[in-house]
Amino acid sequence: MADIKYYDVIKKPVITEKSMNAMAEKKYTFLVHPEANKSQIKEAVEKMFEGTKVKSVNTMNMDGKKKRRGMTVGTTAKTKKAIVALTEDSKDIEIFEEL
């Protein structure tokens, strides 16, 4: 497994209606590096966003979708999502408040 630095773990936030509703419960959704494990994701969130304390991390691997263009069939890249739950006394993540 490659040595992944904490700033390479989180790629971008997932902004959907479902993920925005989960923010009321202090749960944030991110696209993460496919080889990152839960402890690396926890470390990355706590280092990148000051004042946050992670309670739990749930991850899911998303397979690529099949796409077709004429007779050519291919798939999109597979991704990994992480849902990060923060503790009650933790500070909110400000990246979502700007949206």
Write the layout of secondary structure elements.
Blueprint lengths: L5 H4 E4 L3 H6 L4 E6 L5 H11 L5 E9 L3 E4 L2 E4 L3 E8 L13
Antiparallel strand pairs: 1-2, 2-6, 3-6, 4-5
Q: How would you describe what is shown here?
A:
With 99 residues, this protein is an alpha+beta fold. Helices cover 21% and strands 35% of the residues. It contains three helices and six strands, in the order αβαβαββββ. A hairpin with a 2-residue loop joins β4 and β5 (72-75).
Question: Would you summarize the structure shown here?
Answer:
With 99 residues, the chain is α+β, with helices and mostly antiparallel strands. The protein has three helices and six strands.
List the quaternary state of the chains. Answer: single chain
What percent strand? 35-45%
User: How are helices and strands ordered from N to C?
Assistant: HEHEHEEEE
For the biggest β-sheet, the strand order reads: 1-2-6-3
Shape: globular
Helix content: 10-25%
- Chain-averaged pLDDT: 91
Question: What's the gyration radius in Å?
Answer: 15 Å
Low-confidence stretches: none
Individual helix count: 3
Query: What profile does the largest beta sheet have?
Result: 4 strands, antiparallel
Record field, number of beta strands: 6
Distance between the termini: 35 Å
